[in-house]
Amino acid sequence: MQEGVMQQMWDTSHISGGNAAYVEELYEQFLRDPNSVSEEWRDYFEKLPQVNGGGPDVPHSTIQENFVLMARQRQTTRPIEAGTVSSDHERKQIQVLRLISAFRIRGHQQAKIDPLGCMQREQFPDLSLEYHGLSEADLDTEFQTSTIFIGKERATLREILNSMTTTYCGSIGVEYMHIVNTEERRWFQSRMESVRGKPEVGAEARQHLLERLTAAEGLEKYLGTKFPGTKRFGLEGGESLIPMLDEIIQRSGSYGAKEIVIGMAHRGRLNVLVNILGKNPSELFDEFEGKKMADTGSGDVKYHQGFSSNVMTPGGEVHLALAFNPSHLEIVSPVVEGSVRARQDRRNDEVRGQVIPLAIHGDAAFAGQGVVMETLQMSQTRAYKTGGTLHIIINNQVGFTTSKQEDARSTEYCTDVAKIVGAPILHVNGDDPEAVHFATKLALDYRMEFKRDVVIDMVCYRRRGHNEADEPSGTQPLMYQVIKTHKTTRDLYAGKLVEAGVMDAEQDKTLVDSYRNALDNGGYVVKALVKEPNKELFVDWTPYLGHEWTARHDTRVALATLQGLGQKLCKVPEGFVVQRQVSKIIDDRLKMAAGAQSINWGAAEILAYGSLIMEGHPVRITGQDVGRGTFSHRHAVLHNQKDGSTHVPLANISENQPDFQIWDSLLSEEAVLAFEYGYATTTPSALVIWEAQFGDFANGCQVVIDQFITSGEHKWGRLCGLTMLLPHGYEGQGPEHSSARLERYLQLCAEHNIQVCVPTTPAQVFHMLRRQVLRPLRKPLIAFTPKSLLRHKLAVSTLEDLAEGSFQTIIPEIDEHDSAEITRMIMCSGKVYYDLLEYKRANELKNTAIIRIEQLYPFPQDDLDELIASYPNLKDVVWCQEEPMNQGAWYCSQHHMRRALDNHTNSLRLEYAGRDASAAPACGYMSKHVEEQQKLVKDAFNV
Ligand code: AMP
User: Fold this and answer.
1) Which amino acid residue places its CA nearest to atom 18 of ligand 1?
2) How many domains does the chain have?
3) What is the per-residue pLDDT across 517-569, written as a single tens digit (0 to 9) for each?
4) How many angstroms separate the CA atoms of 308 and 318, rounded?
5) According to its UniProt record, which reaction does this protein catalyse (predicted)?
């Protein structure tokens, strides 16, 4: 009987069928302007409770969506009288919709995600019946369920409430209603609601979960007993990470993934190495015993080590690469992204399904480190997208000794930053392995479907201190009182399975014993490990191993080739309208290609890239404004003045040419440089360049320079051919746009770790860039590039200079001279050379030779010794620099110069001409700058 009445009500309801669209529109109208709807409707809408905690607006897209769905699913359409809310039941139906919506939006805040039960949750009334104008008396009333995935058209309020509570307030708290894309939100609704947030798990899968948990716990216990008190940053409390990673890898394989690149900090790393990547436990034990594992370099602690292996999945072999990681948390994430992008580019994987980035974070670091935001912000940009990253937070609810709620962050969750890119977030109770398993599937499926970032926040705890020597109860007394008596995840789950009759206690014991025995035997413990990996999944780095920086190379390009290339690079498509100044640059480049005009910096650079592409080397350049160049010299990307379309001549040299990518980066230095480091350490054949807008902006990525670029090879044996172009030069632009802080890089130089070059001519930049790829050596190149020299009348070369010669580490005096007449030598690097040259020529100072040291590291000692020895009558030798005395090359490089003087037959002293020591890199006043510059030039000549 009641059902019949209900049916009748719906059939006549003004919010059913096509009328839903009308109500939806009305509601929209109300939100825009409350006065635009009739008083009765206004009154009705105003009384609706605020789902979002009482803010002025309501996430009306949800309401809209509900109405739209109702409209779609109900076939009956009947026009309604505008201006009326017809029945009490209809009101209640809307209130039920709002209750449902509230669960979707806020359910996570009441989800049972904390295994310790210590988490303080703010209470909101939104999930109560009363808040939505409903009461217990309505519990047995049936309502439409067309907007929820409950398996039937109608259900009682009790059923709806139960369904919503189980779905959204169980062991998974899911945040997805902030996602702008409706399809994605619907996807989550359907996946969560159709199984009430907890799908059935079969006996076999449960046993597998337990086996993985046993491995996770077993390893930590074993290490704890064998090496008590030794730092290992154990996973205890977060063991569910292991079954989670196992599922990700196996499922990715089924999706057809071929590679997974993993970034993670120290916590749980050893466990991942042994139980996921298949590192031989006996190797790890050797490391615990302090044995030297690498033949070369300085090495790194065991919980920073990277690893590579192949494992078998239902979809075939999957290559796993765990990136080497420094202590600086979160910085590895953009490195991983760069490595993934490089692998995707290598595979022409434009769908980005073959290589998957997996970033494992700590809760405190994810909330605290700025590079997290930078990396997220890169995730959908053309230059940096990788088709979505799977983020996992090992959320042990404490940062070293810092408590989460009061001090570690200002946001409710440590994951809130991920909302900037609309990433869905799955908070999951780490003590519920089946929930973790489901959250993992959801996250991976979402990534594969929508190619966007997704976060799993695995809420767990840290059974011990920050490391095994730390006592945590001193700082977190209450939490650790709970932890002390809290059973392990494995034991809890084993108990559950025994209780459910999935296994008996004896079988459980066998599981524990057999893992321990495997460790005792020192064998591999990953069953899926492929012992003879498919080599095709690896890049061959052997051609780049074992070379010195003096390795032979030929950077010349035949004149005719250069001319042809120069012309090709000036071609624009039919009807493409180039802007006036750019058109002039192209005309000039055509003249340069014809040999009718000297080659300038921009043309030489472009020819270097073009010739490398012709020789089969991919080129990738990123940085702020690199397409045009900060100082408008490059114009590698042309913009059609008619329709804004772009044309990249270097990407159109020939049909099957290697990749030429040039991307203006987002305004980040740290994440972007780390990304390019990751890219370069994965692609040895390419020229990979990051250019700073101004060189000193690289101080925003000092961590990458210190922890990876200058030391990665020595710590981890990872070669890197990355090039950094850092505009540098004192032109009166003030303290922040003058110096690229040469001294910083020189101070980091040792053991031939990097190359530091200061090219001063177009031919030099041409040969330097080509040398970086053509020489088999892969060492980072830090190049200090000019600003005013880009257009300086003397800083030009000829086509022949490019066609002949090579990069000169030192450029001797260029004016004709008799070496016996030279009594004074000025040594310098960079732009100041041209100031010195002009002064010398203007004053006809024929007794002075000016030499340019174009490579400051590795220092060309032999070349300098030879050059100095060639001037028998030298009396005075000066190092001249624009930088203040405490900066530039003076302190870091003078010992090399002195060594050359010591070898001379005359007794020579090295003098200094340059700015006085200064706290700031440069002054802020043009007049002072000019005065200083003139003085240092005169000082160099001792006048
Ligand atoms: P991956 O794919 O990163 O796991 O690398 C596979 C293997 O290639 C490593 O185990 C190394 O032997 C080698 N390899 C990868 N990257 C580098 C690098 N940057 N320098 C030297 N060898 C590398």
Assistant:
1) 718
2) 4
3) 999 988 889 989 998 888 877 889 999 999 988 888 999 999 999 999 999 99
4) 11
5) N(6)-[(R)-lipoyl]-L-lysyl-[protein] + 2-oxoglutarate + H(+) = N(6)-[(R)-S(8)-succinyldihydrolipoyl]-L-lysyl-[protein] + CO2
One-letter amino acid of 423: A
Same domain, 921 and 793: no
- Res 120: pLDDT: 83
Is there an atom of ligand 1 within 6 Å of 925 CB? no
Q: What's CA 721's distance to the chain center, in Å?
A: 19
Strand order in the sheet with 355-362: 172-175, 425-429, 454-459, 390-395, 355-362, 259-264, 316-322, 307-313
Across 325-410, where does the E strand assignment appear?
Answer: 355-362, 390-395, 398-399, 402-403
- The confidence score (pLDDT) of residue 33 equals 65
Ligand 1 close to Cβ of residue 563 (< 6 A): no
The CATH number of the domain holding residue 899 is 3.40.50.11610
Q: What is the 3-state secondary structure (H, E, C) of 577-631?
A: CCCHHHHHHHHHHHHHHCCCCCECHHHHHHHHHHHHHHCCCCEEEEECCCCCCCC
Please give the pLDDT value at position 4.
39
Parts of the chain with a pLDDT under 50: 1-18, 49-64, 66-84
CA of 343 to the centre of ligand 1 (A): 12
- Per-residue pLDDT at 692: 97
Q: Which domain holds residue 248?
A: 203-210+232-508
| Boundary (domain end) residue, out of 736, 769, 803 | 803
Ligand 1 atom with the smallest distance to the CA of 719 is: 20
* 616 burial type by CB count under 10 A (0-12 exposed, 13-18 middle, 19+ buried): exposed
Q: Is the CB of 308 under 6 A from ligand 1?
A: yes
CA distances (Å), origin 551, targets 267, 406, 546, 574, 790: 41, 57, 10, 45, 30
- If residue 883 lies in a helix (H) or strand (E), which one and from where to where? strand 876-884
pTM: 0.90
Which of 563, 543, 566, 542 shows the shortest CA–CA distance to 553?
A: 543
Cβ–Cβ contacts within 10 Å for residue 512, how many?
17
Residue-wise burial string across 658-672, b where 16 or more C-beta atoms lie within 10 A, e elsewhere: bebbbbbbeebbbbb
Kindly give, in sequence order, each residue whose CB lies less than 8 Å from that of residue 254, ignoring residues fewer than 6 positions away: 313, 314, 315
- Model confidence over 337-355: pLDDT tens digits? 999 999 999 999 999 999 9
